[in-house]
Design brief:
The chain is an alpha/beta fold. It folds into 2 domains: 3-436, Amino acid/polyamine transporter I (Up-down Bundle); 445-632, no CATH class. The chain has helices spanning 3-8, 12-21, 24-27, 33-38, 45-70, 82-93, 98-111, 115-124, 137-149, 156-181, 193-202, 210-213, 220-225, 227-230, 232-258, 269-273, 280-311, 333-350, 353-356, 362-381, 386-407, 411-441, 452-459, 485-493, 543-556, 567-570, 595-608, 614-617, and strands at 445-447, 466-474, 482-484, 498-510, 516-524, 528-536, 578-587, 625-632. Strands 5-6-4-2-7-8 form a 6-stranded mixed sheet. A two-stranded antiparallel sheet has the order 1-3. β5 and β6 (528-536) form a beta hairpin. The chain is elongated, with a radius of gyration of 30 Å. The termini are far apart. One of its GO terms (cellular component) is plasma membrane. Pfam families: K_trans, K_trans_C. This is Probable potassium transport system protein Kup.
């Protein structure tokens, strides 16, 4: 079955996975969205119906049309997400797309700092119905700590429960919403967008309340990011049911509020106010489980996002673990513990979900804006009618810029936290990418074929002690016809390294997320080989494992002999040793940098401190790795105004 057919296939299991993984964030929005808009205000028909109308059309325009219908078409061999989209279109549309990709990815990560606290807090605060003076902060923090600690063990087993639990959640909120709606079915007239327009026009400060309404669609970006887990067909099919239950929940809350015009919403919030008393305990339990699942999906998405950023050279290399055999599931300790600390600080700072609402939404608005720019490029690549592209792009830009402006009012109330974090993450990506690009641009190459005679002579020079049977160098050279000067210097000049066979390995990151291919160029049989790995940007480059398989294949095909050439070992057919030589570049003192270069290198070298060493990033056996320091000279200083003075010594002393 082709990947195209597979991604569009719909199955019961796929639908259940989609419900459990994809819609967690957007599915728990009814807990706080309407409350965020109407809290502290006297309820009026304009406010209540206008809010529902805006929610209906936000879910329709942003979530359904932009993401479910249009954006899901932009799959990168079945994978979604802002970095997958960037990898899909970058080779057609130029390097400028790196800007929206980095901005979007950074602010999507920043949004992940707010989602778990506000979701879990909103659910746990249902207990205030029974215990009005209960301090929910310790409970929320306890749940978050347990959630983050469990990440290292994987979620493969528990993940099987996510779908059924979320199915119960959506069915529950839909049923409760329908029950409340029956008492005031007239609220359905809010499907008319005029109610939303009147709300924005006539209600005092109505425009700025769009920041609260935007919370209903904050999980839309995650919907696209999780396409690889369950497929486009399953997401689209399950969205029909999910959207119906969401609209019923919002309509039910609106019906309740319509019965209390002139009053203010009570402290329990619009959602719990619609739940019958006999079901309150159940609603708190299922809401808590749903918010935990929503948080889990976001955390997993953060791991995937950072993993992609590392492979695209946007992020310092970090330790990555694979707690299960499930494709695409990974665990990044640095990100996990960083998110945990950040989430705990958010809870301690805001304490209640109503205070967190101000910090929520601003960052993800920027992500959506950036994804619109990338989608526009994708549509151009697909040769969609230019007029249609302009109309679609303009529509979404207008909607998202409107939401962005409305969300700016949240900046002083807490939005500055997610924006500041997003800017810091963006700066990290920029400094790392620019630093890597700058160091790469300074790499000087020499011809590899032209130096083969010297390598062969060194290999056969018995006067030089043998350094290793097989000597392996990682290289940034993309083809066998050249090699870095520093590599040749290491082999031939810096304590010449004699070996039986020299291997040069290059890793090429492919836009296809999971591709794994390799090519071997035989430079000189039994003397030198150039191996190129073509790995997708979601494939971890575990070179120890990959290279071993290549050598095994070559031995099986009788392309190379790996037995040691020592007579005493060879008669017993004992294999030779493999030794990797890596380079650690440091900034030389012999530099005169511009202000821009100083700024880039300062940030880059700071990030190097938290980055994994190359040997760990590539999964190499540290017992077989040698690391050599190489000075990095970006800009050589000008010749100093120094002059030689005449010596008073007339003749060398040994001639006197």
């Amino acid at each position: 079955m082709s990947s195209r057919t597979s991604i569009d296939k719909v199955s019961i299991q796929g639908l259940l996975v989609a419900v459990g993984i994809v819609f967690g964030d957007i599915g728990t929005s009814p807990l706080y969205t309407i409350s965020a808009v109407v809290r502290g205000k006297a309820l009026t028909e304009t406010l209540v119906l206008g809010t529902l109308s805006c929610i209906i059309w936000t879910l329709t325009l942003q979530t359904t049309i932009k993401y479910v219908i249009i954006t899901l078409r932009a799959d990168n061999n079945g994978e979604g997400g802002i970095f997958s989209l960037y990898a899909l279109v970058r080779r057609f549309s130029g390097k400028w797309l790196m800007v929206p990709a980095i901005i979007g990815g950074a602010f999507l990560l920043a949004d992940g700092l707010i989602t778990p606290p506000i979701s879990v807090s909103s659910a746990i605060e249902g207990l205030l119905i029974y215990y009005p003076k209960l301090d929910t902060v310790p409970i929320v923090i306890g749940i978050l700590i347990a959630l983050f600690v469990s990440q290292q063990f994987g979620t493969q087993q528990l993940g099987r429960l996510f779908g059924p639990i979320m199915l119960v959640w959506f069915t529950f909120i839909g049923a409760i919403g329908l029950y409340a709606l029956l008492s005031e079915p007239g609220v359905l007239k809010a499907i008319n967008p005029l109610y939303g327009l009147r709300f924005l026009r006539d209600y005092p400060g109505g425009f700025w309340l769009l920041g609260g309404i935007f919370l209903c669609t904050t999980g839309a970006e995650a919907l696209y990011s999780d396409m690889g887990h369950c497929g486009r067909g399953n997401i689209r099919a399950s969205w029909v049911y999910v959207k119906i239950t969401l609209l019923l929940s919002y309509a039910g809350q609106t019906a309740y509020l319509m019965q209390h015009l002139g009053e203010q919403m009570n402290e329990s919030g619009a959602f719990y106010s619609t739940v019958p008393g006999s079901l309150t305990v159940f609603s708190i339990i299922i809401a808590t489980l749903a918010t935990i699942i929503a948080s889990q999906a976001l955390i997993s998405g953060a791991f995937t996002l950072v993993g992609e950023a590392m492979r695209l050279n946007f992020w310092p290399r970090q330790r990555v673990a694979y707690p299960s055999d499930e494709r695409g599931q990974l665990y990044v300790p640095f990100v996990n513990w960083g998110l945990m600390v950040g989430c705990i600080l958010i809870v301690l700072h805001f304490r209640e979900s109503k205070n967190m609402e101000a910090a929520f939404g601003l960052a993800v608005t920027l992500t959506m804006l950036m994804s619109t720019l990338l989608i526009s490029s994708y549509l151009r690549v697909k040769r969609v009618n230019t007029i249609l592209i302009v109309l679609v792009t303009a529509m979404f830009l207008i909607v998202e810029i409107t939401f962005l402006i409305a969300n700016l009012v949240k900046f002083e109330e807490g939005g500055w936290i997610s924006v500041t974090l997003g800017l810091l993450l963006m700066a990290m990506m920029v400094f790392w990418y620019q630093g890597e690009s700058l160091t790469s641009s300074l790499t000087r190459y020499d011809t590899l074929p032209g130096n083969l005679p010297a390598l062969k002579e060194l290999s056969n020079d018995n006067a030089i002690p043998k350094y290793a049977t097989h000597l392996v160098y990682l290289t940034s050279a993309e083809s066998y016809d050249k090699i870095e000067n520093e590599t040749l210097f290491s082999i031939l000049n810096r304590a010449p390294k004699r070996a039986d066979i020299y291997w040069f390995i290059h890793v090429c990151v492919e836009d296809d997320p999971y591709v794994m291919r390799y090519k071997v160029d035989t430079l000189a049989p039994e003397d030198a080989y150039f191996v190129t790995f073509y790995l997708g940007f979601r494939v971890e480059p575990r070179l120890n494992l990959l290279f071993r398989q290549v050598v095994q294949d070559m031995v099986a095909d009788k392309e190379v002999t790996i037995d040691a050439k020592y007579r005493s070992l060879n008669i017993h057919r004992i294999g030779g040793d493999f030794r990797f030589v890596l380079f650690r570049k440091f900034l030389s003192f012999d530099n005169e940098l511009t202000i821009k270069q100083q700024l880039i290198m300062t940030g880059y070298l700071l990030l190097k401190r938290i980055a994994l060493p190359t040997k760990e990033a590539y999964g190499l056996d540290t017992s077989n790795v040698v690391t050599e320091a190489v000075p990095l000279v970006i800009r050589t200083p000008k010749r100093l105004p120094m002059h030689r003075v005449q010596s008073s010594l007339k003749h060398p002393l040994n001639q006197q």
